[in-house]
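Quarterly update from the structural biology core.
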Amino acid sequence: MKRCAVSIDLDGLPLYYRIHGLGQAPAELEHVILERALPRAANLFAQRGLHVTWFVVGRDADGDAALPDRAARMANADRLRTLVDHGDELGNHSYSHPYELARLPAADVDHEIAGCDRVLRAIAGKPPRGFRAPGYDLSASMLDSLAKRGYRYDSSVFPAPGYYAAKAAVMAALALVRRPSGAVLTDPRALAAPPDPYRPAMHAPWRRGQAPVVELPISVTPWARLPAIGTTLLVAPALLRRKLIDAMAGRGFWNFELHGIDFADAERDGIPGELVARQPDLRIPIDDKLARLDAILDAIARRWEFATLADVAADVQRTA
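Predicted structure, tokenized:
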């Protein structure tokens, strides 16, 4: 049985300002993704009766009184709680989404994972089962932290050489104009990682091993290993979009990753042109994006059965 798990990384717009070297994002953009984009995405999936996995940056939904915008963060937590009540899954995406997390000391890594874990437990009333590293950059210390907390899976490895090369080129160009990106390049050894679910080695997550946590890689096409993620399909011409979907027929599992920004609308959400100029998906009106996503999900549904990442991980745990 072929299965597809849809997941959405709820990265806030300030993180995109950091990626593109744009400096500090306007304060009014802090919660645009959870306040505006998330409801659009949730409505699309609810209309299809589809349960998905949402990867949450813990700080954005932390009601701690010491944080600024506490009311907005509590409202975000309420939105996420509604998703859980409807059968969706919340995943750990670290507490503050530091792109350099894989390079930090083990204690700092554990602190980031523990902080988001605390927030998600308070929202969902149960422990999260999955984790996705910022920037797809997984490390041994992350696996250690997840294993000791009883997590079922990680979903960070993205074995897409083309994506890696394009990211490296953009980062180099930004460095040349003295506007360095806040992103980091992943360990290049991950580019040769297995593209299908596997049990990783604790000391080398890109290799098969005996970790108690299973790895559910971000999907790439067979052979060419082209990214098979939402942002790629959204901006691709219609013919290329169909070819990418057809190519994925060779995979028994499709880890179909989207981002909250895929559901943002530059005009309706007041997103400044400086970011729109660097994010191709923001130049597509939201109605067009929703129509494309609906068609993509229709095409997927003809070949794959939908499940949450936690459901897929449970099956892999039994057989890996």
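The chain has a mean pLDDT of 97.
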